[in-house]
Amino acid sequence: MYGAGDVRVVDVPDPKIQLPTDALVRVLRACVCGSDLHPFRSLPATPEGTPMGHEFVGVVEEVGAEVSAVAPGDVVIAPFAWSDGSCPFCREGLQTSCLHGGFWAAGGIGGGQAEAVRVPFAEGTLVKAPVAEDSGLLPSLLTLSDVYGTGYHAAVKGGVAAGSTVTVIGDGAVGLLAVLASRQLGAERIVLMGRHKTRTDLGREFGATDVVAERGEEGIAAVRELTGGHGSPIVLEAVGHMPAYEQAFGVVRPGGVISRVGVPQYEEAPIGFGSLFRHNITLTGGPAPARAYIDTLMPAVLDGTADPGKVFDRTVSLEETPAGYRAMDERSALKVLIRP
Amino acid sequence: MYGAGDVRVVDVPDPKIQLPTDALVRVLRACVCGSDLHPFRSLPATPEGTPMGHEFVGVVEEVGAEVSAVAPGDVVIAPFAWSDGSCPFCREGLQTSCLHGGFWAAGGIGGGQAEAVRVPFAEGTLVKAPVAEDSGLLPSLLTLSDVYGTGYHAAVKGGVAAGSTVTVIGDGAVGLLAVLASRQLGAERIVLMGRHKTRTDLGREFGATDVVAERGEEGIAAVRELTGGHGSPIVLEAVGHMPAYEQAFGVVRPGGVISRVGVPQYEEAPIGFGSLFRHNITLTGGPAPARAYIDTLMPAVLDGTADPGKVFDRTVSLEETPAGYRAMDERSALKVLIRP
């Protein structure tokens, strides 16, 4: 990406093993993330550009001398943050705060929207998936890189459990998979706030019991009416823009929790007496430690119980990636799968 | 209070029972709260003034026809919010969000810095204390109105448990009692941030294992060093001013929790990627449902195990209340007891 709206497919030097803890992975499937749209709309132009993409599944081609947990030929899932697997935060399951980890497409590490990627700390980062290179499950496994794990993180941090009443704000891939995760965790009532019918229909399929298309005061009133008049005990915010946050504290019940997983496009926001404090609202969430959830979520994908890959409604080749960005930006596609 | 710095003791009509759910309480002890200092520093002047005080213990003088849980002659504790005791939030123990409740010294209800108070929803609001009018325990019981319950709320919402590492920001009465509460809940390491030695000495007596007098970057570095280098998993913010909040997200560990009970003197504050989101920090807290904690905390007060009344370091008569405000404002007193 060379600036807002300017995505190009260019040849770069092949990645190579640099450290004994590296693996070289050939990408089987990658995708465009809702969060990629933020730079697509605002990145200042640069002559050198930046690699893109933080979600991919691939085949291990080569490993460094210290890597034995994955081997050439393995199909692997790469979470959206790479991590050493051994620091205190990795051991606690908060791999996104790994002391030695980082994010793709930054600091000399390539992005997933490519033919191949050098993976640092391969043993800490990658999870082997017991499928073949041509498996029909690849799209669903790819969601474990980010959007499914992120939706699940929202639900876990929000405290969703059997019988919960949950409101999900946002009908993008993360919001829809937050619905799926909430249902898997036993939520009884799941209100989905979104106004794109094809998306909210998928939300219903994933487990939403109610859909609220209205926004602002009207949307708040509708959610309150659906949740007993006092608001929703758990609110999952899967957008990241200020109006979604305002919607969140508008619909949350006194004593309730707002769990954010949409990357905030603001730094300052209301949290004082008039918004969070007065009624003891808890605000939680952050970048999902997707790595921590892959083992939990993969079995239902493998046995077909869960089909999170339904969020992909368009497939493009690597060369067609710029068109994929445009389709998501125009909202003509929910989530674009890239097949290098 | 007739405006900033302008506290007067004036005669007002005696309160009377107005509703069958009311009680009339003669005040035995009241006090000045750190949160009373906010209007003392900023309240716009008005000719009619406003009653003050939201913490009191007293004797029931008279009850309405529907009140039987407390009776004339009973010594009672009034929490800083009155509540009906029967709405969904009261039943859940979040009495500060009672659907029909409110705060003292507002909306026609008097304040505790007075000789007598009409108490709405007496059965929902008051808790009987099994002591005599001249009990030496009255100061400690008075802390159950607010500061002790508020410190305890901070610890509970912060998730303090056996073995916890906790940092408490603020050496006012609430901060010191947050230390006491953390110790009671089993915290192993309790770092108190404050720079008034007489107060932090009392904090050590209540259970603080370390005291950090530095503020800003220096204070953050000191706390990080004391807590293993990565910060404090639990931070209790007992001040309410922006620098205290900034200190909180400066010292909190990735994945940790900031529990606020100091009434925020700001509405907007940093909560985006650079402050809370990046490392999955949880922000929680709010006005303590002091009513919910009185039954839990009173036994240790009655048997002398806990002595939260030590936060009172000055006693004044009702007539001397203005001097009490000044002493707290100048920080020559930690907390002023009023003995009408």
Structural write-up:
2 copies of one chain form a homodimer. Chain A is 30% helix and 22% strand. Chain A has 340 residues and is α/β, with parallel strands linked by helices. Chain A folds into 2 domains: 23-146 and 289-339, Quinone Oxidoreductase, Chain A, domain 1 (Alpha-Beta Complex); 151-285, Rossmann fold, CATH 3.40.50.720. In chain A, strand 11, helix 9 and strand 12 form a beta-alpha-beta unit. Chain A is globular. The A-B interface holds A 88-89, 92, 94, 96-97, 157, 230, 254-255, 260, 263-264, 266-287 and B 88-89, 92, 94, 96-97, 157, 230, 254-255, 260, 263-264, 266-287. Chains A, B: Belongs to the zinc-containing alcohol dehydrogenase family. Chains A, B: Residues 173-286 form the Alcohol dehydrogenase-like C-terminal domain.
Question: How many discrete domains of chain A?
Answer: 2
Shape of chain A: globular
Sheet having the most strands of chain A: 7 strands, mixed
The percent of residues in helical segments of chain A reads: 25-40%
The total of beta strands of chain A comes to 16
Give me the strand/helix succession of chain A: EHEEEHEEHEHHEHEHEHEHEEHEHEHE
Question: Which structural class matches the secondary elements of chain A?
Answer: alpha/beta
- Assembly form of the protein: homodimer
Could you give the distance between the termini of chain A?
17 Å
Query: The CATH topology of the largest domain in chain A is what?
Result: Quinone Oxidoreductase, Chain A, domain 1
CATH superfamily label of the largest domain in chain A? Medium-chain alcohol dehydrogenases, catalytic domain
CATH class of the largest domain in chain A: Alpha Beta
| Mean pLDDT over the full residue set of chain A | 97
User: Which regions of chain A contain 5 or more consecutive residues with pLDDT less than 50?
Assistant: none
Biggest interface pair, counts: A-B, 35 and 35 residues
Domain Alcohol dehydrogenase-like N-terminal (chains A, B): 20-129
GO molecular function, one term (chains A, B): oxidoreductase activity
InterPro entries (chains A, B): ADH-like_C, ADH-like_N, ADH_Zn_CS, GroES-like_sf, NAD(P)-bd_dom_sf
Domain Alcohol dehydrogenase-like C-terminal (chains A, B): 173-286
